[in-house]
Design a protein that fits this description.
2 domains; alpha/beta; 11 strands; 2-enoyl-CoA Hydratase, Chain A, domain 1
């Protein structure tokens, strides 16, 4: 666990599933600069522990993340030092986005601004019925992080991204599902069960195949090289899991992938 003055980022692990929790409940899980800086090491800790999927969530059930901590902006996010804040935000986003295992945002309550940026860095997003989403930088006079903006456009398309950014409107979970911002909506008491069902499915698949899929998707988005794609593909062919997949198919049984 990594503590900050006003919040913390902590990781837990259960079997093949790792959890990254945004914990600043007194401030609706707003992200401060120290918390952003802790995300890359938290992701690295989970990935190197051998987990197969990461779930990102907010502490409690009232907010995934209400944004960045505006109370810091007067001192830490001015023209002369904003690059430090922007760099920390970008590195947090990229650490989640580039994790070689699938990442899932489990969203309850408010998911806005910096919280939305964190959710957009994840591969999959599932929300409770009471979740709400907004990109409100225009209400503050700042710019939405460019990496998050790219992810927003890639996720919902330019038309919906334009609406969210240029009106700073808040939308509910049903509208978020309609435009493709989230992959599913559940009753708040069933959300974790729904996410666990997805993680169970992911954990039964070949890890190197999933990593190769993420690499190819990153290449399509201009964030990986042809060499990265070729290396990931070769890794699949050279893996024990590939042989296990063939054997399981021929023997009409469920494969037992171990990631090697």
């Amino acid at each position: 666990m990594s503590e900050t003055t006003n919040g913390e980022i902590y990781t837990t692990k259960k079997g093949d599933v790792g959890w990254l929790t945004i914990a600043n409940p007194q401030n609706r899980n707003a992200m401060n600069l120290s918390m952003y800086k802790m995300v890359p090491s938290a992701i690295h800790e989970l990935v190197t522990s051998g987990i197969r999927v990461i779930i990102v969530k907010g502490e409690g059930d009232h907010a995934f993340g209400a944004g960045s901590d505006i109370s810091e902006f007067a001192a830490l996010r001015q023209k002369e030092n904003s690059h430090i804040y922007d760099k920390a935000e970008l590195e947090a986003h990229e650490a989640i986005e580039r994790a070689n295992v699938p990442t899932i945002a489990m969203i309850q309550g408010a998911c806005r601004g910096g919280g939305l940026a964190i959710a957009l860095a994840c591969d999959l997003r599932y929300a409770s019925e009471d979740a709400s989403f907004a990109a409100p930088p225009a209400k503050l006079g700042i710019a939405f992080p460019h990496a998050a903006l790219e992810s927003l456009v890639a996720t919902v398309g330019a038309a919906h991204a334009n609406y969210l950014l240029l009106t700073a409107s808040t939308i509910g979970s049903d509208e978020a599902y309609r435009i493709g911002l989230v992959h599913g909506v559940s009753d708040k008491y069933q959300l974790e069960q729904a996410v666990n069902s997805i993680t169970d499915k992911i954990c039964g698949l070949a890890p190197q195949s999933l990593s190769a899929a993420k690499t190819s998707l990153a290449y399509i988005a201009g964030k990986a090289s042809p060499e990265d794609v070729e290396s990931a593909k070769d890794g699949c062919y050279n893996s024990n899991d590939y042989q296990e997949g063939i054997a399981a198919f021929l023997e009409k049984r469920t494969p037992n992938f171990d990631g090697t």
